[in-house]
C-alpha cells in the first residue's frame, strides 16, 4: 500500500506556531528590519520545524504586494537603455521581483500611463525627464516607493545619477591640449538632465579659458541617424575643430557624416561621445565611460529597500563616477597619454 504524501507546510501554519501574523512571517523570512531579532529567530525556528519553503506568490499575498516593480524609460531603443535595464532586472530578480517596463516616447498622455502602472506595482523607478515633477511627487505622496534614475533630485525621493559636469569639463580640457578651440556640442540639454549636465561642464571649461561657448545643436533623437543628419547639416555650414556629442550613438553618426564629407577624423575633425558602448571601442572613439548596469542595479536595490524597509527614512542621493576614455578620434597623443 502506497504511503500518503505529507502535505506541504503553509505560511499560516508557520504564523500559528510562531504566534505572529502571516505578514510578520513574510518579513522575518526576508530578514526585514521591521521585525525584531527575537521575532525573526522565532519565525525561522518555526519554519525549520515545519520544513516550510516560502513561495513568492504566497509571500506577496501575505503582504498585499504585487511581487513586481515598475521602471519608466523615455525610450527602449538603443544599447544604453538596454544596459541599464539589464542591470536593473538582474538586481530585481535577486529580490524575487518581476519588472514591468513602460516607455513614454510616443504616448499622448505619459502621466496617465505612469499613474496606471503605479497602481499595479509595489514601487516605481522613473528614468530621466519622462514625466513632470508633480506626477512624481504626487505618487510619492501616496506612500508609493519611488526612486529617480538619471534625473535631478526631488525632495524626499531617492536619486541615483552618473557624474556629468566634472567629467565633461575634463573632456574639454583634454581636447584643448590638442589645440582645438572651435567646439560644437550635439545634444539637447532641455530633453535630458544628463545631457544638461554634460553641456554645463563643456560651457564651464570653455568659459574658464575665455573661449566662445557654442549654443547646443539640438537633435531629432539621440541615435546614429540623428547624429548623422545633424552633422551633415553642420559640416555644410561650418568647420569646427571638435564635435562633442551627447552620446556614443550620435558620435558614430558624426563619424559617418565626416567620412561622407571627405573629412578625416581626427586629422580634420575631432569627435567625442559618451557612454563607452562596445561600438565606440571598435571605432576608436574618445568618450566617457559610465556605469550603465550599476545605475540600473543601484536603482533596483534602493527601490527594494524602500518597498521592504522602514518608511519615512531620509532620502538618499548618489552620483556614480564616470571616466574619460581617450582614443584616437580626438587626435594623436604624446607618450604620457595612453589611449585605450
Put the structure in a nutshell.
This protein is an alpha/beta fold and 340 residues long. The protein contains 13 helices and 11 strands.
Describe the protein's topology:
Blueprint: H1 11-18, H2 22-29, H3 37-50, H4 56-63, E1 68-73, H5 79-94, E2 98-103, H6 110-118, E3 124-127, H7 133-141, E4 146-149, E5 158-162, H8 165-177, E6 183-186, H9 193-208, H10 224-237, E7 242-245, H11 248-260, E8 270-272, H12 278-283, E9 287-289, H13 292-308, E10 317-320, E11 323-325
Parallel strand pairs: 1-2, 1-3, 3-4, 4-5, 5-10, 6-7, 7-8
Antiparallel strand pairs: 9-11
Helix pairs in contact: 1-2, 1-3, 2-3, 2-4, 5-13, 8-9, 10-11
Describe this structure in words.
With 340 residues, the protein is α/β, with parallel strands linked by helices. It has 3 domains: 11-63, Orthogonal Bundle (434 Repressor (Amino-terminal Domain)); 68-161 and 292-309, Rossmann fold (3-Layer(aba) Sandwich), CATH 3.40.50.2300; 165-289 and 324-330, 3-Layer(aba) Sandwich (Rossmann fold), CATH 3.40.50.2300. It has 13 helices and 11 strands. The protein has helices spanning 11-18, 22-29, 37-50, 56-63, 79-94, 110-118, 133-141, 165-177, 193-208, 224-237, 248-260, 278-283, 292-308, and strands at residues 68-73, 98-103, 124-127, 146-149, 158-162, 183-186, 242-245, 270-272, 287-289, 317-320, 323-325. The strands form 3 sheets. It has a 6-stranded parallel beta sheet, with helices on both faces. Helix 7 links the parallel strand 3 and strand 4. Helix 1 (11-18) packs across helix 3. It is elongated, with a radius of gyration of 25 Å. The chain starts with 10 loop residues before the first helix and ends in a 15-residue tail after the last strand. Mean pLDDT is 88; it is low at 1-6.
Amino acid at each position: 500500500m502506497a504511503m500518503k504524501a505529507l502535505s506541504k507546510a503553509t505560511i499560516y501554519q508557520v504564523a500559528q506556531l510562531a504566534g505572529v501574523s502571516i505578514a510578520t512571517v513574510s518579513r522575518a523570512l526576508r530578514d526585514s528590519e521591521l521585525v525584531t531579532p527575537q521575532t525573526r529567530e522565532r519565525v525561522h525556528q518555526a519554519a525549520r520545524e515545519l520544513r516550510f519553503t516560502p513561495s513568492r506568490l504566497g509571500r506577496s499575498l501575505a503582504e498585499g504586494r504585487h511581487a513586481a516593480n515598475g521602471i519608466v524609460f523615455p525610450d527602449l531603443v538603443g544599447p544604453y537603455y538596454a544596459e541599464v535595464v539589464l542591470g536593473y532586472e538582474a538586481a530585481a530578480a535577486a529580490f524575487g521581483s518581476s519588472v514591468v517596463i513602460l516607455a513614454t516616447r510616443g504616448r499622448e498622455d505619459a502621466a496617465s500611463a505612469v499613474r496606471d502602472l503605479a497602481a499595479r506595482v509595489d514601487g516605481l523607478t522613473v528614468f530621466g525627464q519622462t514625466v513632470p515633477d508633480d506626477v512624481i511627487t504626487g505618487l510619492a505622496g501616496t506612500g508609493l516607493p519611488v526612486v529617480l534614475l538619471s534625473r535631478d533630485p526631488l525632495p524626499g525621493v531617492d536619486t541615483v545619477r552618473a557624474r556629468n559636469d566634472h567629467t565633461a569639463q575634463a573632456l574639454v580640457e583634454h581636447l584643448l591640449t590638442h589645440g582645438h578651440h572651435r567646439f560644437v556640442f550635439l545634444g539637447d540639454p532641455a530633453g535630458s538632465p544628463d545631457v544638461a549636465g554634460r553641456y554645463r561642464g563643456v560651457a564651464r571649461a570653455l568659459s574658464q579659458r575665455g573661449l566662445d561657448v557654442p549654443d547646443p545643436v539640438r537633435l531629432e533623437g539621440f541615435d546614429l541617424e540623428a547624429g548623422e543628419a545633424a552633422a551633415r547639416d553642420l559640416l555644410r555650414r561650418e568647420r569646427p575643430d571638435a564635435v562633442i556629442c551627447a552620446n556614443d550613438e550620435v558620435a558614430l553618426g558624426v563619424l559617418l557624416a565626416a567620412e561622407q564629407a571627405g573629412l578625416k577624423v581626427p586629422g580634420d575633425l575631432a569627435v567625442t561621445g559618451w557612454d563607452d558602448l562596445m561600438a565606440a571601442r571598435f571605432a576608436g572613439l574618445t568618450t566617457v565611460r559610465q556605469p550603465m548596469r550599476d545605475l540600473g542595479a543601484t536603482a533596483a536595490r534602493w527601490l527594494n529597500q524602500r518597498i521592504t524597509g522602514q518608511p519615512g527614512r531620509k532620502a538618499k542621493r548618489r552620483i556614480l563616477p564616470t571616466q574619460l576614455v581617450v582614443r584616437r578620434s580626438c587626435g594623436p597623443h604624446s607618450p604620457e597619454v595612453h589611449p585605450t
